[in-house]
């Protein structure tokens, strides 16, 4: 049975970590949007590296960054929260500093910079989810996680837009963007650290998970590797198909990317709250069905050829984005619900490992399948995603308390969003 949902922005901000933390997220996302989409361009134009060498260095940096996740998980399980978030931002400051100090032609120093940027980018999601899980609980936590994602996407979009405008300045503009990015990361780290939120794992009420070992979640983790391909569809798969197969203007790719960002920013919280009347696992399985349907839609749209193909792809991309929104609103929420309090960090770290691995391999898989035709690309993605959705639906939750079938929708009110004793907050970070 459901109740009337009321989403009050002030209460949502409090459940997400507080105003100061929200500002830190926005500043961090803005800085990331300034540089991350143009890191490859920086290596090629500023450092005069070859495109293959730049791409390999970036990939190695991202994959190597995943190695830090077990340590991040153990650190979170010792109670650290805002400190880990701040550390993930400071590590990226080091990466930007190395980037600015890299002489032209030095691929290894560029790779080291990419490594530090990769460590920060991989550690941040788990640290952020753990912090939100400490401040908010139940379905309010799900809405808070969705709100954080919407805010981050807004910052990324604004940052990328500003960077695009500045690119007319050439290599000097790229170096300036990198410097501004480093300053943004530094400011965000200071704001996040000032929240001073620390959990007491031993004293945290196990209202979302029972006290026990970390859940195995084998099917969920394996399926997540396939699910995260949807995050690279607007950035990699669709531009590749539109330009090389449909011979459409690059304007279509840009329009789809902008639409994806706008839809995520505006719909992430409302859709997550709407779906809260169902179990998280059921919603996550539904996300796979929606994504698979969109992949089949892309297969049909590309068969229309030049002319109607590009508009059809753009229309189907809305369905794909909806699947992405449902997936993002339920996946991390399900993991935090399944994890016992004392192993929350390690559980989130394992989940982020699967996410990072999927993001790392998806460009290679997509670009390898695309030359073999639309059926090879979209048919394979649809089949793999449907299998993953089925695996999630039938997996059993052993030793956990994810009893949220038919759960009521959250009402985000201005009242306190965390039980007493679940965390220590020095200062006014969560007030």
From TrEMBL:
Q: Keyword Kinase, does the record have it?
A: no
List where the protein spans the membrane.
21-43, 49-72, 84-101, 107-138, 150-170, 176-195, 225-245, 251-271, 283-301, 313-339, 351-370, 376-394
Location relative to the cell: Cell membrane
Membrane topology listed for this record? Multi-pass membrane protein
Keywords recorded for this protein, A-Z: Cell membrane, Membrane, Transmembrane, Transmembrane helix, Transport
Q: Where is the composition biased (Polar residues)?
A: 402-414
Point out the coiled-coil segments of this chain: none
Pfam families, per the entry: MFS_1 (PF07690)
Name recorded for this polypeptide: MFS transporter
Organism field: Streptomyces nigrescens
Lineage, opening ranks: Bacteria, Bacillati, Actinomycetota, Actinomycetes, Kitasatosporales
């Amino acid at each position: 049975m459901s109740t009337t949902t009321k989403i009050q922005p002030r209460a949502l901000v409090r459940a997400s970590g507080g105003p100061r933390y929200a500002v830190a997220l926005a500043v961090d996302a803005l800085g990331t949007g300034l540089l991350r989409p143009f890191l490859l361009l920086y290596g090629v134009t500023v450092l005069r590296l070859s495109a293959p060498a730049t791409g390999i260095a970036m990939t190695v940096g991202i994959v190597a960054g995943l190695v830090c996740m077990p340590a991040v998980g153990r650190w979170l399980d010792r109670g650290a929260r805002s400190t880990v978030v701040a550390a993930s931002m400071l590590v990226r400051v080091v990466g930007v500093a190395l980037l600015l100090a890299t002489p032209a032609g030095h691929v290894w120093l560029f790779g080291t910079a990419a490594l530090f940027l990769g460590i920060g980018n991989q550690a941040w999601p788990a640290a952020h989810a753990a912090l939100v899980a400490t401040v908010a609980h139940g379905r309010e936590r799900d809405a808070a996680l969705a709100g954080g994602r919407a805010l981050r996407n807004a910052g990324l979009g604004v940052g990328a837009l500003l960077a695009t405008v500045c690119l007319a300045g050439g290599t000097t503009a790229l170096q300036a963007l990198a410097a501004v990015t480093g300053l943004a990361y530094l400011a965000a780290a200071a704001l996040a650290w000032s929240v001073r939120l620390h959990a007491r794992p031993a004293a945290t009420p196990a209202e979302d998970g029972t006290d026990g070992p970390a859940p195995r979640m084998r099917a969920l983790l394996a399926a997540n590797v396939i699910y995260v391909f949807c995050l690279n569809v607007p950035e990699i798969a669709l531009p590749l198909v539109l330009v090389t197969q449909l011979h459409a203007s690059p304007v279509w790719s840009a329009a789809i990317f902008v639409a994806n960002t706008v839809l995520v920013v505006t719909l992430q919280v409302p859709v997550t709250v709407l779906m809260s009347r169902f179990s998280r696992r059921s919603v996550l399985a539904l996300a796979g069905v929606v994504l698979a349907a969109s992949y089949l839609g892309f297969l049909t749209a590309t068969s229309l050829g030049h002319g109607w193909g590009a508009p059809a792809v753009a229309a189907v991309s809305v369905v794909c984005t909806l699947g992405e929104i449902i997936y993002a609103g339920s996946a991390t929420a399900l993991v935090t619900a399944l994890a016992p309090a004392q192993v929350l960090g390690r559980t989130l770290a394992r989940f982020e490992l699967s996410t990072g691995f999927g993001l790392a391999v998806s460009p290679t898989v997509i670009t390898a399948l695309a030359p073999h035709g639309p059926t090879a690309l979209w048919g394979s993605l649809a089949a793999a995603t449907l299998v993953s959705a089925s695996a999630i639906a039938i997996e059993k939750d052993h030793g956990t308390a994810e009893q949220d079938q038919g759960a009521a929708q959250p009402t985000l009110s201005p009242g306190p969003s965390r039980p007493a004793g679940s965390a220590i907050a020095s200062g006014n970070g969560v007030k």
